[in-house]
C-alpha cells in the first residue's frame, strides 16, 4: 500500500466582482498555502480569449508563483505547444529552470486552449500545427539536450537543463504519444472523463521505458469541492456547475457565486451535459470525499491526483484544499506491479 501524491491545477479563474489582479494575488496565496499543506506541484494552464480564465501568459505566471514559493514544483498544465515554436518554449522554460532550479515542470498539450477563431489569431499560417505535435515535442527535447551544443540553433538558457516534460491530454491520442516517448502522462479528467480509463490503460499497456522514465506515471486531474458538510459543499459546487454550463452553451461569464438551486439557471439538456463532465469530481464533507477517493484510487491506481477547485469564495477555496490534503493522507491503494 502506498500514499498518494497530490498537486494543484490552477486555471487562474476570475470571479464575478474581481479582476485578474485579484486572481493572481489569490493564486499566490493558494500556492503558498498548498506548499505548507504538502502539495507537490502547482500547475497553471494556457487558455486564451476566456473571460473567466486569466492564465494566457502562462510562463509569466509560473515565474510569479515560483518566485513567491520555496519548495513546491511549479509548471504548466499545460503549455499548448502548437501555439508556439519549440525554441521559444525551450528558452522560456530554460529561463524559469535557471531562476528556480529543480522546481519547474513542463506539461505539453496539443489543443489550442481556445476557440478556432482565436487559434487562427495565435497561430496564423501555422493553424494546423497540431499535426506536428509529436515532432515538436521531440524538437523541444533536443533543445534541452547536451547533444544540441553543436547545433546552429540552440536554446540559451535551456540547453543541458533537467526540465521534466509531461504529455497532457483528454483523448487516447495523447496516451499513445506519451507511451511511445516514455514520458509521464497527465489526463484532463476534470472536464473530459469519458475516455479517462481507456486512455490510461492504453498508456500503461504501450509504455516504452525511456532515459527519463522507467515505468508509466499517471496524473489524474480532478474537481474537488470540499467543505465541513455535504450540504455546504453541494452549495459551493453550484459555481462550478455554472462555469461548466458556460462551457457547454458558449455563454461564458466570470465565475458566479453559489446558489441554493440550479433549477432556474439551467434546463434538463444543459444539466445532463454538465453532468457528463463531472465523472471525476469529489464533492462533499471530509468523510464523503474520503469514501469516494478510496473507491476511485482502487479503480484507477493513478500515481498522482491534481486538484482543481472552482470555488467562488477565496477562503472557502483555501479550506477545500486544506480538507483534501488531510483526507488524502487517509486513503491508500495497492501499487501497480
TrEMBL record:
Name the record gives this protein: Luciferase-like monooxygenase
SUPFAM superfamilies for the chain: Bacterial luciferase-like (SSF51679)
GO molecular function per UniProt: oxidoreductase activity, acting on paired donors, with incorporation or reduction of molecular oxygen
Family listed: To bacterial alkanal monooxygenase alpha and beta chains.
Residues annotated as domain Luciferase-like: 13-303
A Pfam family the protein falls into: Bac_luciferase
Highest classification ranks of the organism: Bacteria, Pseudomonadati, Bacteroidota, Sphingobacteriia, Sphingobacteriales
GO cellular component: cytosol
